[in-house]
Amino acid sequence: MTKTNIVLTGVGGQGVITAANILGKAAVKAGVNVFVSEVHGMAQRGGSVNCTVRLGDVYGPLVQACSADVIVSTEPIEALRYIDYSNKDTKIITDINPVVPFTVSTGDEVYPDIEKVYNKIKTYGKLYKVDAVKLAKKAGALITKNVVMLGALAGSGVLPFDKKILLDTVLENVPKKYKEINKKAFESGYNSIKK
Amino acid sequence: MEILEDKPGKKILLLGNEAITRGALEAGVDVATTYPGTPSSEIADTFSYIARYFTKQKKDPSYYFEYSTNEKVALEVAGASAISGLRALTCMKHVGLNVASDTFMTYMYIGCNGGHVIISADDPSCHSSQNEQDNRYYALFSGAPMLEPTTPNEAKEMTRIGFEISEKLKSPILLRTTTRLNHVRGPINLKKIKKPRKKGKFERSPMWVTTPAIARKRHPELLKMIKKAGEISEKSEFNKIINVGKPKDWGIVTSGVSYNYVREVADDLNLDIRILKLGMTHPLPRKMCEKFIKSCKKIIVVEELEPILENQFKNIAYDMNSDIELFGKTTNHFSRLFEYNLDIVTEGICNILNIKNPIKKPKKSDIKLPSRPPALCPGCPHRATYYAAKLAKPRGVIYPTDIGCYTLGRAKPLEMADLLLCMGSNAGTACGLSVATDEKIISFMGDSTFFHSGIPPVVNAAHHNHDVVLTVLDNRTTAMTGHQPHPGTEFDGMGRPAKKIFVEEVCKGCGIEKVEITDPNDIKKTTKIFKEALDYKGPAVVVSKSPCILLENRDKRKRGEKIPVYTVDQDKCKKCYLCISKFGCPALYYGENKEVFIDEQQCNGCGNCATICPFDAIVVKEEGK
Questions:
Q1: Candidate from A40, A80, A102 with C-beta closest to B365
Q2: Interface pTM (ipTM) of the complex?
Q3: Residue B24 domain boundaries
């Protein structure tokens, strides 16, 4: 029996739910059983977002504690927020660009020292840092940051289907004129982990 | 559009809610109605999306769809259609069924000719609700047959077959879901889309008029229907026994999404166990349950929220004189609180079976992370209304509030939400607080909430001359649930032109003599209006009109207009921090030396921070975005 447990996290508005949806569609295309769990309603722009995607011999979408194969985060502290899903073999891929919550802007709370956050994550699993903002901008549009992270996920080698299926699904789900930019974004994310 | 593909056998990925809509299309649904509410909203939004797609092309969408004013009206519109022989669907969140319950309870007495599937989307853990009531009790309460899906594909199938069951029984049925079904995506096996019937026929009969004499005749008919439904339940493909390993003494009874956890835990723990998976949970397949009880020595019941299956199994066991041992909520192995997951179900089953829980306990990180609570968006006109109301009278005011984005006025620094029960409760509780206390009352409700259930308390305030200020935050949409239209918008859920109802005219018609309209972005004028409303003896209504900034900016972008971005002129800023500490727009933040900055990404260009700045230190940046 094979199961792949994927946790996608980030901040509302960064395309986390879209990325999870594309990953689910790719799995269907690959003929792999899949369940995707999302958050709606009160979790709007600026809120913490957490989607889980499970592939293979699974019955539902929720991931158990300490059992993620990979955590992909579009924001560094959000990777740590959901670190309970990690075990020592878990690959934790995170973008390195903080999004400061308004609770910090107003002075009520503190954004932790980023190096301490990385060091803490390393005590849980295997950390991979990606400058997804830079790569997305280089590809041609900041909005493709989530696609950079999907590329990185493909590069991590945990997916039970070919990278091309995921890339094709990405391209099917973006407007025609943005296909080239998304392809570049995906490939740059893939290479950032693979090399 | 993938969801409309008529390709039987094809597999596509759909959200649980979309799958329900697809199931209705495969059953040839004629009429669909709703009032939006998380986690049910995407069922209706998908109907709306498809209808608007056809309307735009001047084609017939094949079904009628509406966002009704509230759940009760939605049930009545669809119910009358089903009584007239059409296939109808009504969807709502769990608390919506409370609103519709008056209609629902008696509708069960008279039944329908066409199939009617009523969806109650429950929300264990209150992800986006004011309570986590278990609406399975509504099936027991009303007598309605009930289906509970486990996966999106099963939700589609239960919707499709639900129409057939409903027609066989001449009774509406409940499809009861939970958030972890509504908002889960999974593979769907497409079946053929059926053509709707289009026009119904109302066959007159005294049986449709529930006078006491008729009601006394209909109640025994309801009991007969439940008996017949029990026979369907016995044969239902949705009720089945699954053997894992080599079952001996132990069995598990479960339903809905809990089955997913049970099934997976059985694999993970290498259990030898018999699982009774119930999909049609009202009425229970009595004989099947008896047989299951006889086949086991000990039974674990795994269900979220209330012990509904557990109690019914106790009843059956009692009637059978069985000495079966039952484990579940009564034995404190499972909680009546919140939604379950794999960890919770593993823990409960391990405790009952007295085996070691193999799931590792994660060690907690000692780094404190800042929270990201939901907040009113930058540029939200509600913030300006709140700010003005507070300026009008900073202390000695109680603020009853309501269900919608504006509940977020609860957060710092506004803190202007003091009492909330349910949709429409703001104005009713405002009346009560004015009777009970000497404080001033300013209540808040959205425009969609006003039409939903806000009007009767406005009439009450007028008739009894309650000394209250009732605020309607009119942003011309149902923003929180995803920008659905409502009676105050000039188009409907099918994208057709619709009669726009004006809040202020309704209030005047309800007998309110002091009705004021304001644009909250004019903070000075709005403050003055609130002051006058507070001074007024008797009920006053303030209609604060400004469109949701997200819609406004979307339209601006469509028109090719730029959205202004504001910036702080550091030379002029005196660091009084009024903009952050009193107004609290999330786009504003402190720099390293406590300077104030504006996050360009987040700024939606409303300019209200510039208006309130006493030193004119906030200005428009040249370029905009």
A1: A80
A2: 0.96
A3: 2-235
